Amino acid sequence: MLMAMTTHTSSPRPSVRFASLVHRWPSAVGLLAAAGLFLAGVDRASVALVVAIAATCYVAAAAFSLPRMAWAWIPLSFVIVLAGALVELDPLVVTVGAAALLVVVGFLRGASRPALTLEIAGLLLYGAVAVGALLLAPTAGLVVVAATLVAHGIWDLWHLRRHRDLVSPSLAEACVALDVPLGLAVLVAVLV
To answer: Could you read off the pLDDT of 48-60 as tens digits, one per residue?
Structure first.
């Protein structure tokens, strides 16, 4: 008697699916942050600050030659912004000052010149466009800074794929999940 061969296909076990989701925790963190920021209300200055902090995270990692320093920079940047607010300094000014200090620290520590130079170039590029957007009319400025945030998401993706040694891959993944959805949401809200 011939036994019929059957193939049994089923969806992955719940534990496998859960493990896959847990592995994507940086994406969940980024998406939650994007949703929270968007729902809290966005304007040119707040989106420009997100761009500045995002770029400064990469400089922090390069300055200390520690990829995980990019994660540590996020809460540190909030402390710096809050401290600046106590003495009535603009959050973007405080963030730019902190970025400049990180560059000095990186050079004094003898951080890798190629890595530090790359991240400084990113900071200058994204920072200049974000600050320039503040000089435009509110709607135009918001469009420019939101597009800059989406572009920074491409920078994040490039780091995730090519420069895992410069910044923590989990941070790059979280930043992609923050920058691109938040930038696109702002663009849609402004243009539709």
So the answer is: 999 999 999 999 9
